[in-house]
Design brief:
Length: 277
């Protein structure tokens, strides 16, 4: 099998200036199931497609709570995601213990980006094979960041990562101007539409393969829980059914009844009009 001369170690540049091990890690993110993130002025939302290895297996976890004000959705190796999510929790806990305040979201993302970048420049390590979408809320408002194994991180209005994520990006690029003033329900509906674009043709979104992560004031669909108002929470199974029904209802409005003809026997009786409704 052909093997690239410069891909055996992540500290060696190819003549074209590329680090092949880092590019392989980025490909691992593209192989993971899709995740979509979008934000408004008051809320930030994550939506993820869960996979199952078989009929006897449960669906994998795609979202992790980091703190009351931050959460992530992953695409790639779940084992690497657990390591990085635990590191993020430690950073959030340290900020509370040392400074008595929640860590700013941009500093949290910068911390894992710095940690991942170290693995691209030290011999004997490999890059993390997972990408994150990070949402959070702090003094400067709602935030959405993308983190990649190369150590790069960017802030977005809306973003998608994972398999067939380009289809979701196309939808988000068409509608992102509507997100800033959108309600939470509309934000989730747009996210579900974008996530559905990443599905194979014979698949559909349902309560088993979809996860929704929210941060911001609670909606009318959510029940009051033990978490603080506005804290990050994950909706799964029956909790997301109202949002799936809303998406279908707004997508397929009931067809108007055809107007009765002024001529012919069908216009004379009221029974035919009732049958057409």
């Amino acid at each position: 099998m052909f093997r690239n001369t410069y891909d055996s170690d992540n500290t060696v540049f190819s003549p074209q200036g590329r680090l092949h091990q880092v590019e392989y890690a980025l490909e691992a993110v593209k192989q993971g199931s899709a995740a979509v993130g979008l934000k408004s002025k008051t809320h930030a939302v994550l939506l993820a497609l869960k996979r199952s290895t078989g009929e006897l297996a449960s669906y994998q976890q795609k979202m992790f709570r980091i703190d009351d004000h931050a959460g992530i959705a992953i695409a790639g190796l779940t084992s690497d995601a657990r390591v990085l999510s635990n590191f993020m929790r430690q950073q959030a806990m340290s900020s509370k213990m040392l400074f008595n305040r929640a860590i700013p979201v941009n500093r949290l993302v910068s911390a894992i980006a710095d940690k991942a970048q170290v693995n691209t420049q030290e011999y004997g390590r490999r890059p993390y094979g997972v990408g994150f979408l990070v949402i959070g809320y702090d003094e400067s408002g709602s935030h959405l960041y993308e983190f990649s194994p190369s150590g790069n991180s960017y802030e977005y209005f809306a973003m998608s990562i994972g398999a067939r994520s380009q289809s979701a990006k196309t939808y988000l690029e068409k509608h992102y101007e509507e997100f800033a003033d959108a309600s939470l329900e509309d934000l989730i509906r747009h996210g579900l539409h974008a996530l559905r674009e990443t599905l194979q043709q014979d698949k559909e979104l349902n309560v088993n393969n979809t996860s929704i992560g929210l941060i911001g004031p609670r909606s009318e669909h959510e029940k009051k829980g033990v978490q603080p108002e506005g804290a990050f929470r994950i909706l799964e199974n029956e909790a997301i059914e109202p949002f799936l029904k809303t998406m279908v209802a707004k997508e397929d409005p009931p067809a108007p009844a055809p107007a009765a003809s002024s001529s012919g026997p069908a216009a004379s009786g009221s029974g035919d009009v009732q049958m057409s409704g």
